[in-house]
Amino acid sequence: MRGTAQSSLFVWVALLVVALFNLFPFYWMVTSSFKTSLEVVSYPATLSPKEWTTEAYRNIWLQEGFVTYFRNSLIVSLSTAFLSSFVGLLAGYGFSRFQFRGRMTWMSLFLGSQMLPGVLLVGAYFKMLTFAGLYDSLFGLILAQTTITLPFSVWMLKGYIDTVPAEIDNAAMIDGAGRLQILIRIIAPNIIPGFVATATFAFLLAWGDLLWALCLIEDQGKQTMTLGITRLIGQFRVQWSEIMAATVIGSVIPATLYLFLQKYLVQGFTGSAVKD
């Protein structure tokens, strides 16, 4: 009994240390966003603001144009999530239900593409989008983000469609249903957790992206939140309070998604999406 109690105590202490290690940066970020520009760079550092102020939030919304950056990020992220999940659902159904030449080769290529660092591909995307006249456009950025997230979406959704018995498709076709009707009315409702997890992954990847937006967007009016935050770092001055405030605002959407979709995310990533 004594050994069990000591083991439990050790586990709780270890979990507490890990939790503090992970949560302290968020605490520092939030408190620093409410500090004055002088206090945030003062030494020694203060754990909480001596004078609470929302000046940093007012500055980034009214002076730095973060309303536009926030809107652009929402447009790019939502569009990427929708396109990646929708096309992934169609492709996943095709790979799951149809046998054709090169099927496994294509699936292997999708998987292998995920092993390539994005920095190796951004040059090629830059050339292609420039040739197509889509450079420095939100649509071009959405297409680039979609192609990056699509292989994962195809693999993820194919795995969930595989868990739905193919006999259901045959029974529905006997009743006169077409392939698209089967996918939308039968398959999709049974893989909702997996679909939500896939869409959330694509959304968060696009929301937190910096490399692709930096290389494919030049017009300030089309820049995203991540690019807007980098503009707060100047050659002679770093606006730490504004950076922290912008980061807090940028973290609201991912935190909200995790809060309200955690049930679907857990089911989606553990493979318990299909009801028996």
Structure write-up:
The structure is a single chain. Helix 4 packs across helix 6 and helix 6 (138-162) runs antiparallel to helix 9. This protein has helices at residues 2-33, 55-62, 66-97, 103-113, 118-132, 138-162, 166-174, 179-190, 192-207, 211-216, 225-230, 240-270. The protein has twelve helices and no strands. The chain is globular. The longest helix is centred in the N-terminal third of the chain and has 32 residues, at 2-33. The model is unreliable at 272-276 (pLDDT under 50). By secondary structure, it is mainly α.
Topology (elements, then pairings):
Elements: H1 2-33, H2 55-62, H3 66-97, H4 103-113, H5 118-132, H6 138-162, H7 166-174, H8 179-190, H9 192-207, H10 211-216, H11 225-230, H12 240-270
Notable features of this structure?
276 residues, disordered C terminus, 12 helices
Major sheet, described briefly? none
N-to-C terminal Cα separation, in Å?
41 Å
| Topology, number of strands | 0
User: Which series of helices and strands comes N to C?
Assistant: HHHHHHHHHHHH
Q: Helix- and strand-based class?
A: mainly alpha
Provide a compact summary of the structure:
The radius of gyration is 23 Å and the shape is globular. The protein is mostly helical. Mean pLDDT is 84; it is low at 272-276.
